[in-house]
Design goal:
Layout lengths: L2 H42 L2 H32 L3 H34 L10 H22 L2 H31 L4 H33 L27
């Protein structure tokens, strides 16, 4: 193979990888928009708009399928090895995580429909803060992916502890409302599920961060991440005490 032919193949692969990265970043931005739209319809108590957000999840699913096909084609035509292979597999894994983020955003919108049918309660506004943290995580990790910035990805990985802590505090607040007045049980139950969906979005952002770390460094991220989601701790129901 001549030098010019080899250079052409490398450039072609680089071009395809750049295009694939762009597709994944756009897919991630769409997922973040879905989350923000879901929070907006909760505040407006708009059932029709909520259903629109749910239906829009199909667009993210379709993008994930298209990206999967692109990855398979890239594997078949370019036969990448070593670092190039890590780039391709990272794209596949990251697209799958973004698809799940879109699912969780749609679930939040779906839960907002029955929530809008009951009287509003004060804790509803707390979801917005959780969503802001989760959306920022996803945005930051998308930038890290676009720029192949392992250190930025690692920062997102660490920062997820802040979302876990906020989620635990919100969980505690909702339990208090449920215990104070049985009429709050139904709306607070919806809010609990919605908050858990948002917390899971943060978990998928950390999955993406781990994929980026491996993509760039060729080794898994093995550090122990601080986990501050204590909601599975039975002691949490003792609302006056903080879990150890």
């Amino acid at each position: 193979m001549s030098g010019s032919s080899k250079e052409h193949i490398i450039k072609s692969y680089d071009d395809e990888l750049t295009r694939l990265t762009g597709e994944i970043v756009r897919m991630g931005e769409l997922a973040v928009s879905q989350l923000e739209a879901a929070i907006d319809v909760i505040d407006r108590r708009d059932e029709r708009a909520a259903q629109h957000v749910v239906n829009n999840d199909d667009a993210i699913d379709l993008l994930e399928q298209e990206i999967s096909h692109d990855v398979v084609r890239l594997l078949a035509l370019r036969a990448p090895i070593a670092g190039d292979l890590r780039n391709v597999f990272a794209a596949l894994r990251i697209a799958a995580d973004i698809e799940r983020i879109g699912d969780y955003a749609a679930n939040v919108a779906k839960r907002s429909i029955p929530l809008s049918m009951v009287a509003p309660i004060a804790p509803t506004s707390g979801l917005g803060y959780l969503a802001e943290l989760a959306a920022q995580e996803v945005r930051d990790v998308l930038i890290a992916y676009r720029d192949r910035d392992a250190e930025r990805a690692y920062q997102v990985w660490k920062d997820d502890a802040e979302l876990d802590e906020a989620y635990t505090g919100y969980f505690r607040q909702l339990l208090t409302y449920m215990m104070e007045d049985p009429r709050n049980i139904t709306p607070c139950t919806h809010l609990l599920f919605m908050a858990k969906n948002i917390e899971r979005i943060g978990d998928h952002a950390t999955n993406i961060a781990e994929s980026i770390w491996y993509q760039v460094n060729g080794e898994p991220l093995t550090a122990q991440r601080a986990k501050r989601d204590f909601t599975s701790n039975p002691e949490l129901t003792k609302l006056g005490n903080k879990p150890e």
